Structures are given as structure tokens and as C-alpha cells.
Amino acid sequence: MDPLPNPAPLASKLRNTLVRYHSIGDGEWRVAKKTKDATVWRKPSEEFSGYLYKAQGVVEDVTNRIVDHIRPGPYRLHWDSLMTSMDILETFEENCCVMRYTTAGQLWNIIASREFVDFSYTTSYEDGLLTCGISLDYGEVRPNFVRGFNHPCGWFCVPLKDSPGHSLLTGYIQTELRGMLPQSAVDTAMSSTLANFYSDLKKALKA
């Protein structure tokens, strides 16, 4: 088990990685799923043997409120159907924390429950916000869970210039679920999960 990292350099590196993902040209992405709420693309990850997913959609609300629903805190557990528990293990200054959370089984439980321990960081980006995270090898793995690993991932949320009450939400997710899983099942689950994330988030914001 690793000790907790120094948050400042990790936060800076994480932000730079996400900004780099955000500048990847459209031609490198392939559409994986399209719904009325969001479009999901993917490309091979540079971090592991799976995919880096990009999801994007317009959400009707102001940036701060949307990000408050996504980042670690009281809102997320209430509306995100995939998340079954969340504990903040450590809080650092400047919007950094370490959280442990568990996810529900997916695809008729072909993908069993997973546990993650993530470093999370929220910072300003252009006129909006970026909330991002990466998994840490920290803390004992609890029985009955497989420990998954999130490679650098995050959500950019910026107000639409023509419509300030709406925001463009763009996510980059690359999750290594680990355990004995067929890659095709993982890919199906990831695309659907990201599309559902947008519809669930929109319902929560209107509630």
C-alpha cells in the first residue's frame, strides 16, 4: 500500500493530463454511443489496454451547481445510480480530497461490485470548472469487492456563451475494472453508463 501522495504536484499533473485529453482532435475519436442527452466516443488509452472514453452533452443549469453534483460530496450519492457508497478518507486544501467509493454490479452482474480509492481535485477552467481524479493504491481492499482503478479522468463544465443558463459538460473516463472480465462486456457497460450519467444528472438537477 502506498502512502498518500503530496496533493499539489499530483493535482497539477492531473489537470495538465486532462487539458491534453481535451485538446485531442475529433479525428482520433470513434462514436461508441449516441442518445438524446449525450454522445460518447472512445479511442485506445495511452495508460492501459482499454479505452479512453469521451462523453459530451449540454446540461441545463449553471456550471457550479452541475459540478457540485459530480464531485465528491453529499449530492453524488443521491442521484448516481451506479455509486452505492462514498466516504471521504482525507481532505486537503484547495479542493482536493481522497475518497473511497463502491459501485453497483452491471450487465446482470457479469460485472460485480467494484471499490475505488480516488484522489479528486476541482479547479477553475476557462469560464467554468474542471473536476478530475485518479485512483490510488491506498487502504485495505474490503472483502466482497474487486478494487478497480481509474486512470486520469475528469469532467470539464463550461457555460454556453449564447445561453448562460446552460453548460457544456465533457467527460474523459478510463476505468480499469480489473478482475476476470470479457473486454466486450466492459466496453458495452462503459458506453451505456456514461450516457445514463447524463440523463440521471439532468433529472437530479431538475428535482
TrEMBL record:
PROSITE patterns: START. This is STAR4 protein. The gene is Stard4. GO terms for biological process: cholesterol import; cholesterol transport involved in cholesterol storage; intracellular cholesterol transport. One of its GO terms (cellular component) is cytosol. It comes from Pheucticus melanocephalus. Pfam families: START. Residues 10-207 form the START domain. InterPro entries: StarD4 (IPR042555), START-like_dom_sf (IPR023393), START_lipid-bd_dom (IPR002913). GO terms for molecular function: cholesterol binding; cholesterol transfer activity.
